[in-house]
Amino acid sequence: MTESDVHTVLSDAFLTVLYASGPIMVIALVVGLIIAFFQALTQVQEMTLTFVPKIIAIFVGLLVFTPFMYAMVKALSDRAFDLIVSGAV
């Protein structure tokens, strides 16, 4: 296995992590910004107001995006196991 092969495998792994976690991070960011905007407009500074809607949105996002995340991680593991079986590792 050459340095370029290692670079390709690591690059695929990092991109898979970014792509799989991206939708959940975007959901948390958008909900957090909406809540912060609401708090700035109404001057309501309740701590549970920031956490509860964000946690609910993340759980709903996980329910929706779990098949996509599973497909991404499965594809990466299939490529890694194919490299192991072919003897490239």
TrEMBL record:
Main location: membrane
Subcellular location: Cell membrane
Membrane topology field: Multi-pass membrane protein
Cellular component aspect of the GO annotation: plasma membrane
Annotated keywords: Cell membrane, Cell projection, Cilium, Flagellum, Membrane, Transmembrane, Transmembrane helix
Pfam families in alphabetical order: Bac_export_3
A biological process term (GO) from this entry: protein secretion
Transmembrane segments annotated in the record for this chain: 20-39, 51-73
Family to which the UniProt record says this protein belongs: Belongs to the FliQ/MopD/SpaQ family.
Name the UniProt record assigns to this protein: Flagellar biosynthesis protein FliQ
Native species: Salipiger pallidus
Taxonomic placement: Bacteria, Pseudomonadati, Pseudomonadota, Alphaproteobacteria, Rhodobacterales
Gene transcribed to yield this protein: fliQ
